[in-house]
Amino acid sequence: MITSALARRAVLGGAVALPLAARAQPAPEWRPRRTADGTHAMPEPGRRAWAEQVPVIRVGLMGGENEADRLGRFDGLRRLLEETFRVPVRLMPASDYAGVMQALSARQIEFAGLGPSIYAAAWIDTNGGIEPILTTEQVDGSTSYISVMLVRADSGITNLEQMRGRSLAWADPNSASGYLIPRFELRRAGVGVEPGQFFGRTGFGGGHEQAVIAMLQRQYDAAMTWASGMGDINEGFTRGNTRAMVEKGMLRMSDVRIIWQSRPIQNGPLAMRTDLPAEFREDIIRFYLALPRANPAVFEQIARGTGAGFREVRHADYEVFVEMRREEAAARRRRS
User: Fold this and answer.
1) Which of 110, 119, 146, 204 has the greatest count of CB atoms below 10 A from its CB?
2) What is the pLDDT of residues 262-272, one digit of tens each?
3) CATH class in words for 144-265
4) Is the overall model pTM greater than 0.90, yes or no?
5) DSSP string covering 47-100, please?
6) Is the pLDDT confidence value at 5 over 60?
7) H-type alpha helices, the chain
């Protein structure tokens, strides 16, 4: 797994001379709390002492689907947060991924669900001023999803090689599954990802939903988006943009074909500013861990599908994306 490889690298690269007594002390084992443990209850309703520092909870919503649908999906969460903590809750939608990163940097929101790539970018941009607290877990205990390349079923395209010279819609330049990971993997497979190298034309759809719509409307031959890769393909899998679009009647999986998919990608985190009270952080973690069983309808709306619930995560789970971001930035500087 990516995380264990990074952990090994950190241990080897960061070794220092320690007193024998200190080296004999094993590091505490990381035991992330999980919804699947079945021991989590919703925090007791009532206003908290941290409300003096956090009088309004502002929740960032990333782009990827139209704003009205995003606000509608998260309204149940907003009401439940207000009922539990007795403070106003505002949903803060951004037009694209970068907007949420900028809001975190400017301290205009307290937390947001992020993709792994935009988390890495925001962590770099804030000099470590945000931290991941939770991610979603699949029913089999995995915490990953996949990037998929979709084409229209009537396009005649049945494999990646047939995309040579054709057009591809990326989702968003800050999306892991909709841009960075597929570019990285396709390059490693010898597929030139710059226009004219393999694809005839590429562009950004403005989000996952928009990219798929552009493909369906024949503006592009293919679109990159994300899915859990688990469950019934006819339902758009258990979760993801495919599942959300199927449920909204915007997509029928029989109308599209998957011609390429990535290796598993670590699920993005619910990330929070590090300057907030520790008690606030703990209350939010407890709230989310209990949410899937206490109110499954709200969970399915914000998770864009089904799953086992939430699981605690640490920054170490996303270090590979920080490295990838820094490599991309270095490559851009060399090209300019």
Assistant:
1) 119
2) 999 999 999 99
3) alpha beta
4) no
5) --GGGGT-SSEEEEE-SSS-HHHHHHHHHHHHHHHHHHH-S-EEEEE-SSHHHH
6) no
7) 2-13, 20-23, 67-85, 97-105, 116-125, 181-188, 208-216, 241-247, 278-294, 296-303, 319-335
Sign of the Cα pseudo-torsion (240, 246, 250, 254, in order): positive
Fold of 31-139+267-335: D-Maltodextrin-Binding Protein; domain 2 (3.40.190)
Is 292 exposed, middle or buried (CB count within 10 Å of its CB: 0-12, 13-18, 19+)? buried
Single-letter amino acid code for the residue at 203: G
Name beta bridge partners: 61.
93
Which of 66, 63, 106, 33 shows the shortest CA–CA distance to 281? 33
What is the predicted pLDDT for the residue at 25? 58
Position 331 pLDDT exceeds 80: no
For the chain, give every domain's residue range.
31-139+267-335, 144-265
Q: 31-139+267-335 with 144-265: one CATH topology?
A: yes
Q: pLDDT tens-digit profile of 87-137?
A: 999 999 998 888 999 999 999 999 999 999 999 999 999 999 999 999 999
Contacts of 212 (CB under 8 A, 6+ apart): 150, 169, 205, 223, 225, 241, 242, 245, 250, 251, 256
Find tokens 């947001």 and name the residue.
112
Residue 332 — pLDDT band, cuts 50, 70, 90? confident
The reported pLDDT for the residue numbered 15 is 35
Q: Distance between CA atoms of 21 and 161, rounded to whole angstroms?
A: 59
